[in-house]
């Protein structure tokens, strides 16, 4: 069972003191039979009390407020986690029975959100170009695997051509992006075939395997397979998700899984630095993707909501991927 040490640092610095910083963090790995958190140390500037609760999708979410004037806000998470390989589905049930099973869960609460299509005007074009009918002639597992491979083969992995606001329509036209974009377009494809699909945020931690997105925050998809449950698919690397991926959160899309977002009162002139590093049992440190990145937003007065933390954070994370 692989054991990883993950160090994830987010640091905001302000040119003049700001105050009343209220933030939400989703930096707590999923805890289940396939993922055990041995230890987590969380340091936040000012040592505020962090209220931890479960959101609608079962993610652990922390919220905190730092009211005092400050020129830096640092969120430093150190995690030790053990992952366990999970068996892959046995695809022996007749395909007709499996598709009927997916039709039966179509209006059940756990699946409604993950079948609802995001705003995407290109759905008909996607259906035509991917020949969606062929995927309905095989089992849902085979269909999901083929669509995962389609995204990997047809979309180029290029940093910097998309942003946090890039829509599925734009991704489809570009045929390029990073892991977040690959995940979003695969969500569209799976949902259009009637397979429930959800966005997953986390880390990919291969030991010298050279996978895309290693040593940084990563994104992939889980599809619901009858008689099995949620199966992880990584279209960025064309693989099933298993014990080299560490899961943080699930949701309809990336906005449900943002690692850090919040508001504060004060100047909008601030720097954001994000760094992620992963070390392994053998002591090897993967920091190829863990370099610190810095941005200087423009001045536009008091900054709140996604303009403060969420958007800038996700833009930096995309550059890491």
Automatic annotation (TrEMBL):
<dbReference type="Pfam" id="PF08379">
    <property type="entry name" value="Bact_transglu_N"/>
</dbReference>
<protein>
    <submittedName>
        <fullName>Transglutaminase</fullName>
    </submittedName>
</protein>
<feature type="domain" description="Transglutaminase-like">
    <location>
        <begin position="171"/>
        <end position="237"/>
    </location>
</feature>
<dbReference type="InterPro" id="IPR013589">
    <property type="entry name" value="Bac_transglu_N"/>
</dbReference>
<dbReference type="InterPro" id="IPR002931">
    <property type="entry name" value="Transglutaminase-like"/>
</dbReference>
<dbReference type="InterPro" id="IPR038765">
    <property type="entry name" value="Papain-like_cys_pep_sf"/>
</dbReference>
<dbReference type="Pfam" id="PF01841">
    <property type="entry name" value="Transglut_core"/>
</dbReference>
């Amino acid at each position: 069972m692989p054991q990883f040490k993950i160090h994830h640092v987010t640091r905001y610095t302000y040119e003049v003191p700001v105050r009343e910083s209220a933030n939400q963090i989703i930096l707590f790995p999923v805890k289940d039979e396939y993922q055990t958190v041995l230890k987590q140390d969380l340091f936040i500037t000012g040592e505020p009390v962090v209220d931890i609760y479960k959101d609608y999708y079962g993610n652990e979410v922390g919220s905190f407020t730092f009211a005092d004037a400050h020129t830096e806000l640092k969120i430093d998470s150190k995690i030790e986690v053990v992952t366990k390989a999970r068996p892959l589905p046995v695809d022996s049930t007749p395909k007709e029975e499996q598709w009927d099973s997916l039709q039966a869960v179509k209006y059940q609460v756990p699946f409604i959100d993950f079948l609802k299509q995001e705003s995407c005007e290109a759905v008909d074009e996607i259906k035509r170009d991917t020949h969606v009918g062929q995927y309905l002639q095989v089992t849902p597992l085979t269909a999901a695997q083929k669509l995962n491979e389609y995204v990997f083969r047809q979309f180029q992995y290029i940093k910097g051509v998309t942003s946090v606001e890039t829509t599925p329509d734009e991704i489809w036209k570009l045929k390029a992006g990073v892991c977040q974009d690959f995940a979003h377009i695969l969500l569209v494809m799976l949902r259009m075939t009637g397979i429930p699909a959800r966005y997953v945020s986390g880390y990919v931690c291969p030991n010298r395997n050279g996978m895309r997105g290693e040593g940084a925050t990563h994104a992939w998809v889980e599809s619901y397979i009858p008689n099995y449950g949620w199966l992880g698919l990584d279209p960025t690397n064309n693989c099933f998700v298993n014990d080299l991926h560490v899961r943080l959160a699930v949701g309809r899309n990336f906005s449900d899984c943002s690692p850090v977002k919040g508001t504060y009162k004060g100047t909008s002139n601030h720097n954001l630095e994000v760094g992620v590093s992963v070390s392994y049992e053998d002591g090897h440190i993967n920091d190829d993707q863990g370099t610190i990145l810095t941005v200087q937003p423009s001045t536009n007065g008091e900054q709140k909501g996604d303009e403060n933390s969420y958007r800038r954070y996700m833009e930096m994370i995309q550059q890491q991927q």
